[in-house]
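Fold these two proteins, one after the other.
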Amino acid sequence: MKIEKISWQGIDAVLLETKVYEAIIVPSVGANLVKLYNKELDIDILRTPTAEEMETFLNRPQIFGVPLLFPPNRIEDGKYTYAGTEYQYPITIPAQNNYHHGIIKSQPFTITRTRISDDAAEVEASFFSNKVNNDIFLDFPHDFVCKMRFILTDNELTHIVTFCNNSAKSMPLGVGYHTPILLPFSKNTDKSDYKLRLSAGKRWELSERGLPTGNLLNLSDEESLLRTEGMAVTGKPIEIALTDEALIDNEKPYHGAILTNTKDNISVYYEVDSQFKHWTLWNNGGEVDWVCPEPQTWAINAPNLNLPKNITGFQTVESGKSWSGTTRFYVK
């Protein structure tokens, strides 16, 4: 087991290493997990920026590694109201007049804890939002701490995000990840060898602005393959919003994505806990070497949807309380 501060692509990073896995975290860019490598199988799981892509990574970290979204996806007109407070964000998609993804993905985190045991290497990175460190506070006036724990073993990487509400009032909470998983991830394979399974239930009908209309639709015949043998996710554009519903894997309920190299029967598992009730599946037009199964705690534009919270996933964290969500990566 090893934890080491390193210089990676010219910036400070933290390396975690076990006998089987290697992970790299960049604290200064949203504590992004930019690399996860299985040494035994020679598999890079995530899209990792090359030296030539570093400028793009610094400007658009959401298409590399495991970027944290807060809030996830779009907010209509960049605003919503909760408990008498109007939350107003800048418009980041002018053509749709929407705000999207938040900026915590670009904010500098601080390493607040490291720990090595016989079977794990663990790093905690924290971000403090308040009136002094106010890049987020200006639009989201809550004093909070975001902690991300990365626990690497020979079997998996466990990623736990925690939000602690230190403000005096209830805090809306929508969290997600914009996770580009490589395909092909195995040597001597082609993109056509890969199929994706996903714990998708219903599909949200989306407007031309990429916002849910409020209607939940059955999966199409092709989309239903996500729940069974797997769907091809290259060669054509995919951008769909989905609810989460357990699929069966190895005779057990499973929540998450499974990207399988059907040639060698090797799968990357991206498992989520019950906090993540929604997905966006996106492939940037279908001609890239990655696909994003994006877990979200709430639906796109959840604060503005006139639907019950148990459908939209809208939730809050009370003053003095905290919330946590867990995801895991492993290869089988």
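Now the second one:
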Amino acid sequence: MWNKLILLNVVALTFNYIALAYEPSPLQDFCVADPNSSVKVNGVTCKNPMQVQAEDFFFSGLHLRGNTSNQLGSKVTPVFATQLPGLNTLGISMVRIDYAPWGLNPPHTHPRATEILTVLEGTLQVGFVTSNPDNRFITKVLQKGDVFVFPVGLVHFQRNVGNGNAVLLLLH
């Protein structure tokens, strides 16, 4: 009798863990954004996969310098699903940020995204504040070719500390 009860508990626990398992991957290979659709579900609907073309996965424009003649002295050129429909639902985006001398990308956060950047030109100071009780300020001055990562959800910034222009490429 006890053997059957133990076996029943083991089986029940096994199925309980299986029921809690899930796959975070998308259900389809891609969901190219269809901005022309009148149906809006969580943003935009998916384009018919049979109508998807290479152009849906292509963007040109990151080679162009952004206009930094503004109060912050910086210009963000985004590559989101709006600019590159093939990014829709993939959970990644990219930006180019141009900085005038002493330009700033002010403190901000991405609650659900880690951010990694590389300096293409110039000298940038980057930094973030930890969320532990110490609220530590972590900062570094980066040169061309250097890479830095901001952990998910932490307040962070970048600023040009050089006398020339600066450019970075960033993924999140």
